[in-house]
Amino acid sequence: MKPPRHALAAAALAAAALLPATAQPPLKAEVIHWWTSGGESAAVKTLAEAYRAQGGVWVDTAVALGEQARSVAINRIAGGNPPTAAQFNTTQQFRDIVDQGMLNNVDAVAQRDGWDKFLPETVLQAIKVKGHYYAAPVDIHNMTWFWYSRAAFRKAGIAAEPRSFDELFAALDKLKAAGLVPLAHGGQPWQDGIVFTATLAHYGGRELYLKVFRDRDPKAILGEDFKKVLLAFKRLQGYTDKGSPGRNWNDATALLINGRAGVQIMGDWVKGEFAQARQEAGKDYGCSPGFGPNAPYIVQGDVMVFPKTDKPDQIKAQQLLASVITQPATQVAFSIKKGSIPIRTDVDASKMDICAQMGVAAMKDKSRQLGNGEIYITPDQNGALQDVLTGYWNRNVPVEKVQKDIVNALKS
């Protein structure tokens, strides 16, 4: 005997009421990024896990090298097959695609979650364009940390970590005399640029740094103080080894991990490699964001941008991702693996290592914060500057010519 039609209709409605979640497919987010080293891969997994925990599906598209990953993302957007999100640095790198209307903003998330209340001004300046939020900040890095191998220092008879550039050069001399690689460096233009930035900030000082990057002041660039910075930068090149050209940054870090090299000047993402090798800050390696308690803290970092789409499910996926990666718990979990510090100061940093805690303390002192050079100059200007610096690093070029070339490279 068949049940009456009204009973079948009622049963169907009841069944539908029990399954509201299955009616909505999960929010799928394809994310293009360049986090491919061991420490970086461990870090990006924390983002994926946090996104999945809040109902999303993370589709991982890792592309080695930042320039290549950004190129793939831009080509995909221009070709009409955009990812949900793509990694860029906290700089002007994505300003052109904002101006071209190629990105969605995430104003709704930023306003709801109060980004203006916890983001540093240097980060806001990068992600906020004409009043709209076009990127979600993932982390804060300082690109100019000084890293020390405790094993190498012991072998070279160095009792204390350097507290000035003069002491740094003295330590490099001792490492060289002990038959070690004094300065572990990857001879790639962006890495040369990091050593230059560190030298300008910590040897030249805050005022000269801003005159060069922010003001692009020809008088300062052609001046005697900047000449001294360039000579100190070139002097550092003499402490690298023959295997330096073309070396990846994480391979340079490996030289510190195995005690073959003493010093590396690199961003705090290197801590991910130390963590993978089960080395501990303050025990196996030392770290310093600069010299002295008031040393400039160079603010760099990573963001996610959200390619233009009018598909409702993709817009929802973008907004969920922007919210998830900026939440306090995600921030701490990611930073512990990545070596960065959280974008916000209202988090519990007690479980983070001593280097990270130095960074968190520095970020609470606004007088120490400096934007990285790429916040002040365009990608084209930065590329021209890197060409000049790498040419000077690798060849015998008169310092006066380098000064003039830098003036030309930084012209608007």
Automatic annotation (TrEMBL):
Q: Kindly list the GO CC terms recorded for this protein.
A: periplasmic space
Subcellular location as annotated: Periplasm
- What Pfam families does the annotation carry? SBP_bac_1 (PF01547)
Signal keyword on record: yes
* Alphabetized InterPro entries for the sequence: Bact_solute-bd_prot1, SBP
| The entry's keywords | Signal, Transport
Q: What is this protein called?
A: Probable sugar-binding periplasmic protein
What are the leading ranks of the lineage?
Bacteria, Pseudomonadati, Pseudomonadota, Betaproteobacteria, Burkholderiales
